[in-house]
Amino acid sequence: MRAINPLRIALLTHSVNPRGGVVHTLELARALHKLGHDVTVFAPARAGEAMFRASPCRIVLARVAGVRGLVGMVDERIRALKLALADEHAARFDVLHAQDSIGGNALAELKQQGAVGGFVRTVHHLDHFDDAQLARWQRRAWQDADTVLCVSDTWTRTMRDAYGIAAQTVANGIDASRYGACADRDKQTLRERLGIGAGPVVLAVGGIEERKNTSMLLEAFALLRAQRPSAQLVLAGGASLLDHDAYTRRFLARAAELQLDVSGTNTPVIVTGALDDAAMPALYRVADAVSMVSLREGFGLVVLEALASARPVVVSRIAPFTEYLDDATCRFADPHDAHSIADALSHALEGSGGIDFDHAVPALLKRFTWQASALRHLDIYSKQLTRNQLIGEA
């Protein structure tokens, strides 16, 4: 990477909640800060909300009232970010980088108005929206960007093949120091608080969502529990801007049919909701296996967090997981087959689950660091700045 002077960088994320894209934003900001750059993170937030994880970087919260309805909520957050950027004199930043469609549209509008020269957009994954306005916003957020990044080769190829966008891959990272044996001291307190018994315990992070394939995981867990009656499924997190109520109601109805109580603590299925960020390392260490059998992911940070916690992980045999994982680092399963998931979970619960925690996992975690991700970002930022300068001089 070419040496560059310290940059003023604005990173935009869609909320203050613990979602993968927000984690990416905060950890990238921290890594860029450590490398000597001046980073400001912009995020919409309601009154009383704060960023879920502390950061050494400056955080600007664009206050929103909390308009109901997805279209209204997205529109409010776009407008709030535009206002916050205007108040902070957006043009003074060397790099403006949006991690999602909300920030991408705020920057696209400022670009159209001539308030900023251009921006970078990272596509973590794309969603399907029946609403035409949401679909237009999603498309504009990457279409109007000067540089498009993706967190996996899968999505880089998708942007190229489906949309003709010459995106570049910049992978996620993992702060392994947050996880591991250091979290063991908090395990018992967390067990008692959530009503987690002796187990075995299967953990899934991300709440109850169709994209996360939670209902199929429930079917698989029912099969697993028939063989391991004391098993518990813990569904953690789930703070999302999207409406998953209908899917959650179907999930709960099916859990009742399967006679899997979800009513509180000490139950076969425990739904924690959003947890304090400080509790997550201990929760991974409480788990005997971690499941991420999603139908669609940008990268899957939970996988790296689980492996850094020395916990076997079951993942869908689909990209992007198949890009960076193999049989030495995970147990693969067919996300459309409950028996396949149950079988993979059963194997994962046997010792180390056949995963090579002595060699393959450490090598994998060494490949994905936030410092490496930050250096890759800086190289791309530098090239864009050079290109913009040449255009300005032409």
Describe this structure in words.
By secondary structure, the protein is α/β, with parallel strands linked by helices. The chain folds into two domains: 8-173 and 369-393, Glycogen Phosphorylase B (Rossmann fold), CATH 3.40.50; 176-367, 3-Layer(aba) Sandwich (Rossmann fold), CATH 3.40.50.2000. 42% of the residues lie in helices and 15% in strands. The protein is built from 14 helices and 13 strands. The protein has helices at residues 20-34, 70-87, 101-112, 132-143, 153-163, 187-194, 214-227, 245-257, 280-286, 301-308, 321-324, 338-348, 360-367, 370-393, and strands spanning 8-12, 38-46, 58-64, 95-98, 120-123, 147-150, 168-169, 201-205, 232-236, 269-273, 289-292, 313-316, 331-333. The strands form two sheets. A seven-stranded parallel beta sheet has the order 3-2-1-4-5-6-7. β6 (147-150), α5 (153-163) and β7 form a beta-alpha-beta unit. α7 (214-227) crosses α12 (338-348). The model has no long low-confidence stretch (mean pLDDT 93).
